[in-house]
Every structure is written in C-alpha cells, then in structure tokens.
Amino acid sequence: MTTLVIAEHDNASLKGSTANTVTAAIQCGADVHVLVSGFNCGAAAEAASKLAGVSKVLVADAAHFADGLAENIAAQVLAIAADYSHILAPATAYGKNISPRVAANLDVAQISEITKVISADTFERPIYAGNAIATVQSSDAKKVITVRTTGFDAASAGGSAAIENITAVADSGKSSFVSREVAKSDRPELTAAKIIVSGGRGMGSGDNFKILEPLADKLGAAMGASRAAVDAGYVPNDWQVGQTGKIVAPSLYIAVGISGAIQHLAGMKDSKTIVAINKDPEAPIFSVADYGIVGDLFEVVPALIKELG
Amino acid sequence: MKILVPVKRVVDYNVKVRVKSDHSGMDIANVKMSMNPFDEIAIEEAVRLKEQGVATEIIAISCGVAQCQETLRTAMAIGADRGILVETDVELQPLAVAKLLKAIADKEQPALIILGKQAIDDDCNQTGQMLAALLGWPQATFASKVVVADGKVSVTREVDGGLETLSLTLPAIVTTDLRLNEPRYVTLPNIMKAKKKQLDNVKPADLGVDVTPRVKTLKVVEPAQRSAGIIVPDVATLVAKLKNEAKVI
C-alpha cells in the first residue's frame, strides 16, 4: 500500500496545496510518494523531498509538462498508477482538472474534496455547498481523491526523501498552451494567506474596493470578494471566495459589506476568526462572525485602519 | 458541426436543502428542481455557437429519472435542437454518467461537448474530465471564453491566480465557468416550440453501460455550526479583541 500525491507546482516552486495533500496522504495509512511532472522542475522536486512523511519523490521532466496540461500530466500519473493504492491531488483548479481523467482511465470513482480521512476507504466530504457533510465509502480497488486543502494542515518541513527521475510519457499532441494572464500582486495568494480582507456588493463599486487596500496592506492580507461583487464586475473572478470560487480558511477573515449568502459562507466559514462589517444588523454574516461591527463600512474601514496605527 | 450538451436536474439553487433526520441523505422530496446553473451556461454557449454559424446541431442529454424530461425541455427552449434522456432510477455517479455520455458520443460523433464544470448538489466537478479521458479527447475546464476556428477550439480558463488560454484539437471537451456567458431568459413561444422537438428515450442497458454506484454514502450530517459571536461597539474594541482574545493580529 503506497499513496501517490500529484504535486501542484510552477516548476520553480512547490505550491502550498501539495503540503496539505501530503498530510491527507499520510492519514490514508501508507507510504507516501510525490510525483512532480514539470519542465526544469528540479527546485519543485527538491521542495517536495523536504516535506516530512514523504519517502520518495518521482520526477518526470519534459517540455510538454511545463504548463500542466491535463492530458499529459494525467498520462504520466497513469504510467505509474499500478504501484499505488491511493492517488491524491489537491482540490485546486490544477488538481481538479487532472484527477478525474486519471480516475476514469483507471475505471474507478473519484472522491472529490475530502475534508477528513476516516479510514483507508472512507472519507468525509462536503456536499450542497457545504450545507451537509457526507461520509462516503469507496468500493474501488484504487482510490482517486482530491483533497480540500483547508481540511488538512500543511505537512511540515524536515523530510529528506530520495529523488528519482522517471521516464516521461509522450506529448498527447491534442492540446497546447497559448498564454497566461496572472494577476500581478504583491499580496499573498488568496488560498495561502493568513489574513484575508474581503468585500461584497456593499462596496458599491470597483473603485470603492480601493478603501480596503490600505487595510490589506497594513495586515499583510490577501484580498477577496463575494460572488455578488464579482458578478457586479467590481473585481476579477479569481478573487471570488465561495462554493464556486476559492475555499479559504485563514486565521483572520474580515468580511466587509458582505451579507453572507450560503454560497459565500461555504467558502470561508472554516476561518479561525471572522470579523464582519455590515450596516444591516440582520445580515446572515453576523451569524458566523466572531466579532461584528454594525455600521457604514465607509466610516468603519478608515477608522479601523487608523486604529491599527 | 454537432455539439452535445449534457444537462443535470438538481435542486434549485434558491432552495435551502436539509439533511434527513435519519442521516441517510438530503430531504429533496417536493422541493423545486431546476437545471444545474453551469449546464444552463453550457447550453447558452452552444446556442451562441449555432447563432454564429459554427454549430449546426445541438443535442441536449440528461441522465436520470423520468422527470429529467423537464430539464431537457428547458434546454430545448433555450435552443437545443433535440434531446436524449437516458432514463434510470439508479443513483448515478459521475463515472457512470461519463460512460453513458461516451456511448452517446460514439453514436452521435459530435465535434464538441460542452458541460457545466460541476453540479451544485454533489459538487463533484468530475464528469467533463472523465468523459474526456474515456473518449481520449483533450479538455479545457472552467472556461470563461470559447472560440472555435480552423478545426480547433481556443479556450480561456479561470485558474487560480488568473486566466490561461489553451488551444485544443477537435473533437474536444469544454466545461463552463460562471463568467462564460449569461444565459438568456426562456420565452413562452420557445417553451411551446420546445414541446414539439424530438426527445428520445434510452436505457443504460441499451447503451451497454453498467451504472452501479462505486461510492456508498454511509451517512449525511449537518456541518458543525459556528456559533455567532458578539457585536462590538467600535473599532478600538475590535482591535483589542483581535489582539488579546483571538490573538490573530
């Protein structure tokens, strides 16, 4: 019984989601290997080898792995899948894209977004936007799983796994990478941030989001938004926190002008401490907030920035 | 070119569903059912490709109970040309649905299959990718822009931290994200027209597919509730609490 973790990385570095997935893999009760498929991805492989609990890192290095195309990465996983009882990937845009391809080709079900490992074949996962938690048991010989990263702590550093190069599979030739537009920001990434400042429809306009910037700067926070704010065109979609956006669990989540629709709560209610600033005392966000301030956000936010000094 | 669009019947997104008291599942008896919102976006995109002269025929498919006919009629009212219902009372899981869709794709030979990225009931986010794997086709998931030209489809995808654009050879699979388009309102004349469109009914056995579930749900419970905290009078109190009580700043 060995578990394989599909590493998420950008060749130069390993994404934090991989470390959370390793923790889930260890809980599946087996030896843990990590597969890094990339191009000139030595640094990412090196980082994976240092995660505690990882016994081996397999590296497939080829130009057609550079951009993480699902067809090629899934084919690489399938090439070595016979050796593993569990195959885990983070439930991020990266992992969700690749993992079901692996499962279907192995003729097994995928168990999506697990938040808890009960035993080697039984897991907990949220359904209906987190309104219910299902305990599910797989009858397949191999378990293919995506891991909700907020459900598991990141594996700590301190490991020293062997790194082994493996033969790369051929390019599928059916898809090619054209371009990438990554929002440039000095702020931490939303899913990795310790503090998040999020705005909702109450912000009133995209311009008004600027008043949150000094607050985020002061706290070293990432910026997020509710789907309502994204749908209204105030901010880009990759800021979206919620059922259909990103699932986050920072130590502090400050919700500004967010009413707290179910689908937003689904994305942030596992945060350690939640602060809500809203002028409507009846807003559902207050039912999950540890600390609430009822008031006009255009007065409260500047006052808060001043108070933080 | 032919486009297939699978559509799922789910509990309407406005309905707050509750866990059954015996923890065997969700209580969805007598609640309003609708088309999965991401699938509505998929149908809309197919109809727009037809309006652009790229697509010639749109076939909507639904797998599940007899009432999925209503979902297919909605798809046809938006603009699908015909519908196929794969009827079964068995609980269908993504792998089984992908196999049913593969059998239909083998028969219909579409150039493009557009699916919603996930259903809002089981939140699985699997079927499109699984179907791509079974067909051996390329995939572009979480699409926010789709352009078909010269035997290829160029798709802009919503990924963590921004957007990326891929080019796929046809035939291909696309799954939709929220911002791909805004589905049109269905008009009464189109609802009437949809009633006259062809709707075929097949069974999983006709397609030679075993739909036995692979994953068993042992129990379903309410998530642990967060208890509401306190309303603080001013920002000074808030900052003090965050520093001394929560110790998060």
Summarize the structure.
The complex is a heterodimer of chains A (309) and B (249). Chain A is of the alpha/beta class and 309 residues long.
Q: Which two chains form the greatest contact, residue counts included?
A: A-B, 90 and 76 residues
Report the CATH architecture of the largest domain in chain A. 3-Layer(aba) Sandwich
Give the low-confidence spans of chain B. none
How many alpha or pi helices of chain A?
A: 8
CATH architectural grouping of chain B: 3-Layer(aba) Sandwich
Strand order of the largest sheet of chain B: 11-10-9-12-8-1-6-7-13
CA-based gyration radius of chain B: 21 Å
Number of separate strands of chain A: 16
The coarse overall form of chain B would be globular
Sheet with the most strands, sense and barrel status of chain B:
9 strands, mixed
Q: Give the strand content of chain B.
A: 25-35%
* CA(first)-CA(last) distance of chain B: 58 Å
**What is the strand arrangement across the widest sheet of chain A?**
5-9-4-1-2-3-10
Average pLDDT level of chain A: 95
Separate helix tally of chain B: 6
Domain count of chain B: the total is: 1
In the CATH hierarchy, the third-tier topology of the largest domain in chain A is known as Rossmann fold
Secondary-structure-based class of chain B equals: alpha/beta
Under CATH, the topology of chain B can be stated as Rossmann fold
Question: What is the average of the pLDDT values of chain B?
Answer: 96
Number of domains of chain A: 2
Task: From the structure above, extract its key features.
heterodimer; A: 309 residues; alpha/beta; Rossmann fold; 2 domains; 7-stranded parallel beta sheet; 5-stranded parallel beta sheet; 16 strands; 24% helix; globular; B: 249 residues; 9-stranded mixed beta sheet; two-stranded antiparallel ribbon; 6 helices; 15 strands; 28% helix; 32% strand
